[in-house]
C-alpha cells in the first residue's frame, strides 16, 4: 500500500548497506519515492565486495546469481504486489525520472496480462511544438488522453542489436529503458519477459535540440514475440509502426501474419535477401557507426509520426485490451463505481464560475464576506465615529444574517453526489477522490494553463501593467475548481450548521462531515488548512476534523510539524513531494493557494525515538513580492500566512530560489516578523534556509560568501522588523533563534538534468534533498515539543485569533501558553507555600523561644539580644536554603521536555525574581516579628522583675516561719499554723514597698512616633501635625473632603468630583477597617502596649497606599487619615495598658497567691510529698500553652486543607481563583455582590475566601480533626520529653530541676508564663522525681482527654477561625491577589496630572518614553456584557445615572453564554 511505503521508519534515512535480497524492494521504493534516477541500481553489497576482495584477476568470475536480480524483475514484482494507488505513485515517480513505465504487466503465476491504464493515468506531461515557440504557449495534459502516436519496438528470435539501447539513444537518454550494460541489466530475467514498457519523446520546441518535432510514444516488449503473441497482437493494433529487431527472420513466420500496421525490420547485417508482404522496410546497420544508424532510425520514426493517422490515446486502448483477453486495471468495481460518481459531478461543468455559484454556493461571496467581517470585528478599521460596542454588534448581526443565508441553501446535487462518493468504502472512497482530482485538474488545466503562463510572462516583464497582473490573478482564482473547493463547501455546510441550536435536525445531519475529512487525512490526502481565496481558517470545521482524527487513532496523535515558505514558483511543493514522496499540486493548471496539511504515518518502531505518531507536512502558497502584493492587499495575507505556519511548525523551511534572490530579500522581512512574534510567546521553531537551483555544488565552502550575505540580510531585516514590533533589544537574527549559517543552510541543485520535458531529475537534486531529509529527522528527535492533534488544534485557534486581531505579541490569550503558564504557576505556588509554611513554623518556634527567655536560658551571661542575633543568623541560613530549593525546582521544571515549558521560557526570569522577592519579604517579616517579640519581652522585664522580687521576699519569709515553727513545737495543729502564717503575711505585706508599672501616656508617645515617621517629608506636611492631639483625633467618623482628593476642582464637573470623592472615601474606609482589625488583634494579646504597635500601623497604611498608587490620595488626606487611625489606636492601647497595670498590681498579684503559699507552708511543715500537687499545678500551666500552640499551628494547616482538598483547583493559580469567584457571582446573580466585588475587591475576596474556608472545614468536622491532630502531636512531644528527662537521673536532683528541664526542652514549642512558673517553683523542694513524672504523665493524659472533649464540642467555627493568629484567608488572598491597581505597563503611578484631567490618548506628552501598543483584541467578554445587560437599570439607579445604551445582542445573552465566555477567558475546560 502507498501509505506503508510513505511511512517514516528506521530505513527512511538509513544508509546501511543492502545485504539481503529482501531489502532490495524497500531500497528501490525509498529511492524511487524521492525521484532518485539511480533507484534501479540497487543491489546487494556482496556483488560489489567480490571485486574489492579478489582483485582484478577475478573480475570475470561469475558471481552468485542468488543475490542479484534484474531491475525489470524487481519492478515487475513490485507492481504485481502493489495496489492501484501505489502503482500510480510508482509510475508517476518513474516518469519524472524518465524511466520507462509498464504498459502491459505480465503475471507469470496466473499467465494474465494487465493494461496499466489506472497506473498511467496520473502522468501529466508538458511539451511545446515548434509552431508554439513564438507564442511561448505549450501543451500540458494527462498522457493517457493525449493523441500521441505510439511506435513499438519488439524482438523476433535473436538479435545482435540491443533494442533497449537503440531506444535510449533514440530518446537521447541512456537509461530510459533497462539494458544489458546497466547494473544487473545482464542478469537473466525471470518474471519480466512479456512486459511491455512505454516512454515518450516530447519536444521542447527548439529545432536544434528536438529529435522529433512532434510527441511520440515508444513501447518496448521484453522477450521474443513468438512467446508473447497476445502482447504483440495488442501492439500491432495500437501502434503506428512496429520495429522488429531480428537476426533470423523467416519469410513464413507465423507471428507476422494478419498484421495491419507498418512493419520495419531492424537488422545488424542482412545475411540473405528477404522479401515479404508484411515487411516493407528494412533498416540495416551494416558497417555504419552507431550515430549514423540512430539517425536513420530517427528519420524513419519521424516519417512515421508525420504520416500517422492512427493516434490512439492510451485511454482508448482498453477496448482492444478487452478484445485481446487482456485485463484492464481500471475494471475493478470500486474504480468504475467511483469514476461514474466523479463523472456525474464533473461531466456537466461547462462554466466553472457558474458551477461554483450554483453548486458550491456557501463558499463564494458569502464566505468571503464572513471572513472579512470576522477580521473587521477584530481590527475595527472602518469603525469611524460609531460607538465601538454598537459597531461590533452590527458586525455580529451581519455575520448572523450571512450564516442564515448559508443555512437557507439546500444541499446541491453536486454536493449530494460528492457526499455519496465520500461515504463509500475505504477503497472506493480513495478511487473517488483520485477521480475527482483527475477530472478537476484536467478542467483547470484546460481553463487556466494559458492564464497562468500569461501571468508568469507578465511578472517577468518590468514594463507590465500591475493592474493587468491583478486582473489575471482574480481570473485564475475565479476559474479554479479543485477538490479543495468541494471540501471547502463541506466545511461551510458544517460551520453554518454549527450556528444552529444543538438539537437542530439540520445540524445533526452535518455532524458526520468532519469524520469523512478526518478519514481522508488519515488515508494520506492533503486537506486545506487556510482558505487562500477567503484568507481565513474555518476554525470550527478544522477543529472538528482534527478532533475526529484524534479519536480515529485512539488519541495516538502526537505530531511533528514541518512547513515550507517561499516566493511563488520556487519549487516548494516539489521539494516536499520529493522529500516525503507525497503529492502536493505542482502543475501549472493547479497552484497551491492558502495552506494545505498532510499527514505521514510514523512506524511504531520509530515513534518513541521521534516522539510522534505522525509528521504533518504543511505546504503554503507562494509569498508575493511587495510591489505585487500592494495591488491586491495580499501583503497582509502573506504576513498572516507566514505568522501562522511558522507558529504552527516545529521545523520551518524557507525555500529560496537563487534566481529570485532579490525578491527574496523583501520576503525575508515577513518571515523575520513571524519569527520575532513566535519568540515572544516562547515558541522557537527550527529554521532551515534551502537554496534551490544552485549551479555550483562543487564545495560547500564555495557558498560561504552567500551564507555571509544571507546572514547580513537577515540581521538587517531583523533590525527593521524589531523596530516595527517595538522590540529594540533584538538587533540580530540570532537573537530571535538558534541559527548557524553552516548547518542551517542547505544547497540543492536544479531539479532537471538537461532541458525539459525530456530531462530526467538531477541525481544531485534527489541526493541533496535526501541529505536534507536526514537533517530534518535529527531535528525532530531534538524538538522539545510533544503535542498531539488536540494541542495543535488549540494552538491553531489561538494563533489565528491573534493573527486576526493583528495582536501578534499576544500574552496569555493562547490556550496552550495559558495551560503551560497555569501549570508553572501551580507548581510555583506549591513551592512558595511550602517555603512560607516552613518559615512560619520556624518563626513561631523562634518567637516562642524569645517569649521563654529567662526560663529556658539559664546562662545569665547570655542576653536576649544575643539570642536574637543567633536566631537571625539561623533564619538567614534557612531562608537561603529555602530560596535555593525553589530555584533548583525551577531549573528542574524547565529541564523537563513536557508541559510546554518552552512556551513559558520568557517568564522564567520573572519566577526567579519572585523567589528572591519572596525570600526578602519573608526575611523582613521574620526580622520585624522577632525584633518586636524582643522589644515586648524587654518591655515586660520590669514587671517580671517586680513580681520575682516580691516572690523571693515572700518565699524567704515562709521558710523562716517554717523553721521557727519546727524548732518551737513539733506537733502544731493546722489552726495554729494558719494563725502563725496570717501574722507573718500581714507583717511581710506591711514591710514590702510595693511599686507598680509607671503609667504611660500612649497618645503622647504615639504622636512622637508619628512625628518621627513624617520627619523626612516636607515642611508643609509636618505643619499639618501642629495643633493636633491624638487624644482628640479619631472620635468622629473619617470624612474625605473635596480638597483632600483633588487640589484643583474649578475646571472639573461636579459629578466627577463627587464620584472621585466617594471612591476616595471608600478607599480610606477600607484602610481604617484593616487597621482596626490589627488593633483588635493586638488588644487580645496579654502583653503590654509597645511602641512597635503604632509603627506597624503606620507601615500598614503606607503599604496599602503604595499598592494602590492609582488611587492618588493627596498628602493632606494621608496626614488626616494617619491622625485619625493613630488617635483611635492610642485610646484603645491606653485602655489596654491601664488594664494591664491594674491586673498586674504587685500587691493584688501577691494576695492572689496567698492560698498557694499557705498550702505549701503546711505541706512542708508536715513533710508531705508535693509531687502530685506540683504535677497538677504544672499541668494547669501547660494547658493554656498547649491550646495556644494548637491555635498557632492550625492556621497553616487550614490553608493546606483548602489547597489540597476537594475544589483545590480553584486555588491553584490566580486565574483559577478569579474564575471561581466570578462563577459564584454569576450563580448567585445578586447585584449587591457584584457591587461589593467591584468597589471593595479586597474586602469582598477575603470574606469570600473566609466563607469558602468555613464551608470546607464544616465538612466532616475538618477543623476539629486538625485541632486534635496538633493536640495529639504536642502531647506526644510533652510525654516523650518527660520520659527522656526521667532517663537522665544524674542531672535531676529535685522536681524544680525536672520542671526546669521540661521548660528548656519545650522552649521552642510552648510559651510558659514566667509568673505562673515562678509560683510553681516557689517552696518546691521535693526530690521524688520519679513519682512526679508519673503524676505529670497522668495529668497530661487527662488534659488531652479534656481538650479533646472541648474540641469535639465544636462551637462557632467562624469565631474559632477569627481567633487564629495566622489568618488563612489573608495568606491565601496574598498569594492569589490579582492586580494592585497600578499602571499595567510599568507599575509607575501617574504623576503627570497634578490634579488636572488629561486625555489618556495624550499620554506621550507627559511620558515621551512610554509606547503603549493598543490591543484591539481586548473586547468585552460575553460575561460582562451579560452582567451589564442584566443589571443595567439597577446600576443606573445605584449610580444616579441614566441606563446605558446597550447593543441588542448583549440583551440576548443568557447565563449559559456568560459561563461559556468565562470558561473561555480563563481557559477552563468543561
Could you characterize what this model shows?
The protein has 1470 residues and is an alpha/beta fold. 57% of the residues lie in helices and 7% in strands. It is built from 57 helices and 19 strands. The strands form three sheets. A nine-stranded mixed beta sheet has the order 10-9-8-5-7-6-1-2-11, sandwiched between helices. Strands 12, 13, 14, 15, 16, 17, 18 and 19 form an eight-stranded mixed beta sheet that branches. Strands 3-4 form a two-stranded antiparallel ribbon. Helix 13 packs antiparallel against helix 14 (388-408), helix 38 (1054-1084) packs antiparallel against helix 39 (1092-1107) and helix 44 runs antiparallel to helix 57. The longest helix has 61 residues, at 908-968. It is elongated and about 165 Å long. The two termini are 41 Å apart. Residues 47-64, 625-632, 808-814, 1044-1056, 1379-1401 and 1403-1418 have low confidence and may be disordered.
What is the end-to-end distance? 41 Å
As residue ranges, the low-confidence spans are 47-64, 625-632, 808-814, 1044-1056, 1379-1401, 1403-1418
Q: Output the radius of gyration.
A: 47 Å
Instruction: Estimate the global geometry from the Cα principal axes.
Output: elongated
Strand share of the residues?
Answer: 5-15%
Structural class: alpha/beta
What strand order characterises the main sheet? 10-9-8-5-7-6-1-2-11
Helix amount: 55-70%
Q: What's the overall average pLDDT, rounded?
A: 80
Helical run tally: 57
DSSP strand tally: 19
Amino acid at each position: 500500500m502507498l501509505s506503508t511505503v510513505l511511512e517514516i521508519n528506521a530505513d527512511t534515512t538509513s544508509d546501511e548497506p543492502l545485504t539481503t535480497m529482501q531489502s532490495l524492494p524497500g531500497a528501490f521504493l525509498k529511492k524511487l519515492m524521492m525521484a532518485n534516477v539511480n533507484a534501479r541500481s540497487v543491489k546487494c553489497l556482496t556483488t560489489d565486495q567480490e571485486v574489492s576482495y579478489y582483485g582484478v584477476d577475478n573480475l570475470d568470475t561469475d558471481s552468485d546469481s542468488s543475490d542479484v536480480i534484474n531491475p525489470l524483475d524487481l519492478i515487475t514484482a513490485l507492481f504485481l504486489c502493489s495496489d492501484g494507488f501505489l502503482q500510480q505513485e510508482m509510475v508517476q515517480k518513474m516518469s519524472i525520472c524518465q524511466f520507462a513505465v509498464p504498459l502491459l504487466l505480465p503475471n507469470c503465476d496466473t499467465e494474465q496480462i494487465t493494461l496499466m491504464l489506472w497506473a498511467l493515468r496520473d502522468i501529466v506531461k508538458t511539451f511545446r511544438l515548434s509552431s508554439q515557440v513564438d507564442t511561448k504557449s505549450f501543451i500540458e495534459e494527462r498522457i493517457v488522453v493525449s493523441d500521441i502516436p505510439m511506435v513499438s519496438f519488439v524482438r523476433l528470435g535473436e538479435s545482435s542489436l540491443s533494442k533497449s539501447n537503440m531506444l535510449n539513444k533514440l530518446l537521447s537518454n541512456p537509461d530510459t529503458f533497462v539494458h544489458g550494460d546497466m547494473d544487473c541489466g545482464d542478469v537473466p530475467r525471470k518474471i519480466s519477459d512479456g512486459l511491455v514498457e512505454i516512454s515518450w519523446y516530447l519536444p521542447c520546441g527548439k529545432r536544434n535540440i528536438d529529435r522529433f518535432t512532434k510527441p511520440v510514444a515508444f513501447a518496448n516488449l521484453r522477450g521474443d514475440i513468438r512467446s508473447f503473441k497476445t502482447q504483440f497482437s495488442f501492439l500491432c493494433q495500437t501502434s503506428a509502426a512496429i520495429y522488429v529487431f531480428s537476426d533470423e527472420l523467416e519469410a513464413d513466420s507465423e507471428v507476422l501474419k494478419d498484421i495491419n500496421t507498418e512493419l520495419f525490420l531492424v537488422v545488424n547485417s542482412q545475411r540473405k535477401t528477404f522479401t515479404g508482404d508484411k515487411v516493407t522496410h528494412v533498416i540495416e546497420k551494416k558497417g555504419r557507426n552507431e550515430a549514423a544508424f540512430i539517425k536513420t532510425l530517427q528519420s524513419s520514426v519521424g516519417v512515421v509520426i508525420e504520416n500517422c493517422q492512427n493516434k490512439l490515446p492510451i485511454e482508448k486502448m482498453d477496448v482492444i485490451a478487452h478484445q485481446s483477453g487482456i485485463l484492464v486495471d481500471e475494471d475493478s468495481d470500486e474504480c468504475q463505481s467511483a469514476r461514474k460518481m466523479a463523472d456525474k459531478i464533473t461531466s456537466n461543468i461547462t462554466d466553472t464560475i457558474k458551477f461554483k455559484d450554483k453548486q458550491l454556493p456557501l463558499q463564494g461571496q458569502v464566505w468571503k464576506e464572513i471572513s472579512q467581517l470576522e477580521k473587521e470585528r477584530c481590527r475595527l478599521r472602518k469603525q469611524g465615529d460609531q460607538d465601538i460596542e454598537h459597531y461590533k454588534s452590527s458586525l455580529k448581526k451581519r455575520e448572523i444574517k450571512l450564516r442564515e443565508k448559508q443555512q437557507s441553501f439546500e444541499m446541491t446535487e453536486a454536493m449530494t453526489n460528492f457526499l455519496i462518493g465520500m461515504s463509500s468504502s475505504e477503497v472506493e472512497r480513495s478511487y473517488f477522490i483520485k477521480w475527482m482530482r483527475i477530472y478537476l485538474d484536467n478542467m483547470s488545466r484546460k481553463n487556466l494553463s494559458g492564464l497562468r503562463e500569461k501571468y508568469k510572462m507578465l511578472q517577468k516583464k518590468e514594463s507590465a501593467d500591475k493592474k493587468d497582473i491583478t486582473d489575471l490573478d482574480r481570473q485564475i482564482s475565479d476559474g479554479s475548481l479543485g477538490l479543495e473547493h468541494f471540501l471547502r463547501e463541506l466545511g461551510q455546510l458544517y460551520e453554518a450548521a454549527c450556528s444552529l441550536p444543538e438539537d437542530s435536525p439540520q445540524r445533526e445531519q452535518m455532524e458526520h462531515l468532519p469524520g469523512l475529512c478526518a478519514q481522508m487525512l488519515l488515508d494520506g490526502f492533503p486537506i486545506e488548512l487556510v482558505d487562500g481565496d477567503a484568507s481565513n481558517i474555518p476554525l470550527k470545521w478544522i477543529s472538528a476534523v482534527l478532533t475526529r482524527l484524534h479519536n480515529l487513532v485512539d488519541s495516538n496523535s502526537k505530531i511533528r510539524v514541518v512547513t515550507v515558505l517561499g516566493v511563488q514558483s520556487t519549487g516548494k511543493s516539489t521539494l516536499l513531494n520529493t522529500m516525503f514522496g507525497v503529492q502536493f499540486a505542482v502543475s501549472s493548471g493547479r497552484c497551491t493557494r492558502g495552506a494545505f496539511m498532510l499527514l505521514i504515518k510514523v512506524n511504531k518502531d520509530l515513534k518513541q525515538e521521534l516522539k510522534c505518531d505522525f509528521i504533518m507536512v504543511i505546504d503554503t502558497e507562494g509569498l508575493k513580492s511587495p510591489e505585487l502584493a500592494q495591488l491586491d492587499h495580499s501583503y497582509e495575507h502573506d504576513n498572516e500566512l507566514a505568522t501562522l505556519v511558522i507558529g504552527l511548525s516545529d521545523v520551518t523551511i524557507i525555500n529560496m530560489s537563487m534566481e529570485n534572490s532579490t525578491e527574496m530579500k523583501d520576503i525575508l522581512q515577513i518571515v523575520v516578523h513571524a519569527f520575532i512574534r513566535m519568540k515572544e510567546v516562547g515558541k522557537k521553531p527550527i529554521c532551515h534556509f534551502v537554496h534551490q537551483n544552485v549551479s555550483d555544488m562543487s564545495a560547500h565552502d564555495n557558498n560561504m560568501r552567500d551564507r555571509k550575505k544571507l546572514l547580513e540580510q537577515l540581521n538587517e531585516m531583523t533590525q527593521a522588523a524589531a523596530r516595527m514590533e517595538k522590540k529594540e533589544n533584538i538587533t540580530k537574527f540570532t537573537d530571535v533563534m538558534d541559527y548557524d549559517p553552516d548547518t542551517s543552510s542547505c544547497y540543492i541543485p536544479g531539479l532537471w538534468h538537461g532541458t525539459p520535458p525530456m530531462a530526467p531529475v538531477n541525481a544531485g537534486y534527489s541526493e541533496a534533498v535526501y541529505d536534507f531529509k536526514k537533517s530534518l529527522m535529527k531535528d525532530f528527535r531534538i524538538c522539545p515539543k510533544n503535542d498531539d492533534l488536540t494541542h495543535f488544534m488549540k494552538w491553531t485557534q489561538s494563533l489565528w485569533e491573534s493573527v486576526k486581531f493583528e495582536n501578534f505579541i499576544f500574552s496569555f490569550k493562547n490556550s496552550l501558553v495559558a495551560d503551560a503558564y497555569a501549570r508553572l504557576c501551580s507548581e510555583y505556588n506549591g513551592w512558595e507555600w511550602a517555603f512560607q509554611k516552613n518559615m512560619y513554623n520556624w518563626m513561631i518556634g523562634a518567637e516562642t523561644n524569645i517569649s521563654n527567655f529567662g526560663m529556658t536560658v539559664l546562662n545569665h551571661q547570655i542576653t536576649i539580644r544575643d539570642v536574637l542575633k543567633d536566631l537571625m543568623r539561623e533564619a538567614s541560613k534557612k531562608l537561603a536554603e529555602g530560596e535555593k530549593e525553589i530555584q533548583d525546582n525551577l531549573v528542574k521544571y524547565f529541564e523537563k521536555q513536557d508541559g510546554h515549558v518552552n512556551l513559558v521560557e520568557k517568564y522564567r526570569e520573572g519566577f526567579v525574581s519572585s523567589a528572591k522577592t519572596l525570600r526578602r519579604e519573608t526575611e523582613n517579616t521574620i526580622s520585624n516579628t522577632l525584633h518586636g517579640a524582643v522589644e515586648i519581652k524587654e518591655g515586660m522585664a520590669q514587671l517580671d522583675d517586680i513580681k520575682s522580687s516580691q516572690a523571693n521576699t515572700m518565699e524567704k519569709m515562709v521558710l523562716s516561719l517554717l523553721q521557727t515553727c519546727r524548732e518551737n513545737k513539733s506537733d502544731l495543729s493546722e489552726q495554729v499554723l494558719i494563725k502563725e502564717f496570717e501574722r507573718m503575711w500581714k507583717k511581710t505585706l506591711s514591710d514590702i514597698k510595693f511599686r507598680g508599672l509607671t503609667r504611660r501616656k500612649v497618645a503622647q508617645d504615639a504622636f512622637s512616633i508619628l512625628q518621627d515617621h513624617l520627619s523626612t517629608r516636607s515642611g508643609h506636611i509636618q505643619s499639618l501635625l501642629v495643633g493636633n492631639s491624638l487624644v482628640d483625633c479619631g472620635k468622629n467618623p473619617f470624612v474625605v473632603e473635596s480638597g483632600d482628593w483633588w487640589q484643583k476642582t474649578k475646571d472639573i464637573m461636579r459629578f466627577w468630583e463627587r464620584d472621585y470623592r466617594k471612591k476616595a472615601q471608600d478607599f480610606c474606609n477600607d484602610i481604617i477597617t484593616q487597621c482596626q482589625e490589627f488593633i483588635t488583634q493586638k488588644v487580645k494579646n496579654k502583653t503590654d502596649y509597645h511602641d512597635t504597635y503604632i509603627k506597624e500601623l503606620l507601615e500598614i497604611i503606607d503599604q496599602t497606599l503604595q499598592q494602590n498608587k492609582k488611587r492618588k490620595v493627596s498628602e493632606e488626606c494621608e496626614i488626616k487619615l494617619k491622625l485619625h487611625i493613630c488617635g483611635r489606636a492610642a485610646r484603645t492601647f491606653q485602655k489596654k495598658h491601664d488594664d494591664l497595670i491594674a491586673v498586674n498590681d504587685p500587691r493584688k498579684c501577691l494576695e492572689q497567691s496567698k492560698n498557694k503559699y499557705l498550702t505549701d507552708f503546711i505541706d512542708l511543715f508536715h513533710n508531705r510529698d508535693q509531687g502530685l500537687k506540683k504535677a497538677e499545678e504544672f499541668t494547669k500551666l501547660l494547658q493554656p500553652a498547649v491550646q495556644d500552640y494548637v491555635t498557632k499551628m492550625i492556621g497553616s494547616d487550614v490553608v493546606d486543607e483548602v489547597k489540597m482538598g476537594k475544589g483545590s483547583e480553584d486555588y491553584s493559580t490566580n486565574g483559577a481563583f478569579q474564575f471561581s469567584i466570578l462563577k459564584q457571582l454569576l450563580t448567585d446573580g445578586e447585584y449587591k455582590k457584584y457591587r461589593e466585588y467591584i468597589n471593595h475587591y479586597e474586602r469582598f475576596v477575603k470574606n469570600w475566601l473566609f466563607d469558602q474556608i468555613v464551608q470546607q472545614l464544616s465538612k466532616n468536622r475538618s477543623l476539629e480533626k486538625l485541632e486534635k491532630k496538633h493536640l495529639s502531636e504536642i502531647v506526644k512531644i510533652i510525654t516523650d520529653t518527660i520520659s527522656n528527662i526521667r532517663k537522665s537521673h544524674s542531672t535531676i536532683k529535685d522536681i524544680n530541676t525536672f520542671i526546669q528541664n521540661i521548660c528548656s526542652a519545650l522552649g521552642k514549642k510552648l510559651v510558659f508564663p514566667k509568673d505562673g512558673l515562678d509560683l510553681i517553683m516557689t517552696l518546691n523542694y521535693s526530690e521524688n522525681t520519679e513519682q512526679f513524672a508519673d503524676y505529670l504523665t497522668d495529668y497530661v493524659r487527662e488534659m488531652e482527654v479534656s481538650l479533646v472533649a472541648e474540641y469535639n464540642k465544636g462551637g462557632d467555627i467562624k469565631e474559632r477561625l477569627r481567633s487564629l493568629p495566622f489568618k488563612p484567608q489573608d495568606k491565601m488572598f496574598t498569594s492569589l491577589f490579582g492586580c494592585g491597581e497600578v499602571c499595567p505597563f510599568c507599575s509607575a503611578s501617574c504623576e503627570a496630572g497634578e490634579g488636572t484631567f488629561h486625555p489618556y490618548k495624550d499620554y506621550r506628552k507627559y511620558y515621551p518614553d512610554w509606547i503603549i501598543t493598543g490591543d484591539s483584541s481586548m473586547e468585552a467578554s460575553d460575561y460582562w456584557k451579560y452582567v451589564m445587560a442584566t443589571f443595567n437599570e439597577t446600576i443606573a439607579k445605584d449610580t444616579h445615572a441614566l441606563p446605558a445604551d446597550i447593543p441588542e445582542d448583549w440583551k440576548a445573552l443568557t447565563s449559559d453564554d456568560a459561563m461559556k465566555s468565562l470558561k473561555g477567558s480563563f481557559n477552563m475546560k468543561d
